[in-house]
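Journal club prep — side note

Before the paper discussion, L.F. wants everyone to see what a predicted structure for a comparable chain looks like in token form. Sequence:
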Amino acid sequence: MKRTGIIVTVMLFFVFGIISFTSQVYGQSAKKVLMIPREGYSGDLDLMLKMEVGVMNILLKNAGFQVDIATTSGFPIVGNTEKIPKLSRLVDIKLDDYVGIIMPCMGVGAFPGPPVSQEAIAVVKKALADGKPVAASTWSTTILAEGGLLKGKKYAAPADPLQTTGTRKVTDLRYEGGFYSGFGVVQDGKLITSGACPSIERSWGIPSKAAELTMTFIKAIGEK
């Protein structure tokens, strides 16, 4: 009986040791990520909620992170079939609670697009100053550009914002000082960007980088 008790005790120590180790590796104990979706949607909201926000959310939670979602207004984001019913306001969040920030594109247009959230700029600036990874999908990079955070940095976008095309006659001067580096996932220090979201995949045929961006972001959280 005594021997059985010792075996059970050893097994419990082993099991709880594995649980503790797993929590440390994947951040299951306390690590939280802040997601900031852009407001002012111009595309297929259901598509972006399911194939961008949904994909990011699943990958982050599978890696053991809690995902909190915040916008300037804090209003629910509701499509025809998909929705995010509960959000926080950016002015109410405590950045110290989070290990990084990820920003979906949400199908919001690049230029001129809706006004860029000054609250989002402030939060992202503080996160980068604190050495926390920040990931931005497609045209959520306008938050970085307007905040002057792309100067001297490589970044991704569906096309070079500083070049005119047959369909885009105006350049976006907010991107001056940055280095356009294609539409794939680009990491420059703690800054991670990608140039293809589900909306771009549907309209331009460039495969969405939502999963690759998220996995690169997860890896960056563990980098010193």
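L.F.'s comment for the group: The chain has a mean pLDDT of 86. Keep this in mind when we get to the figures.
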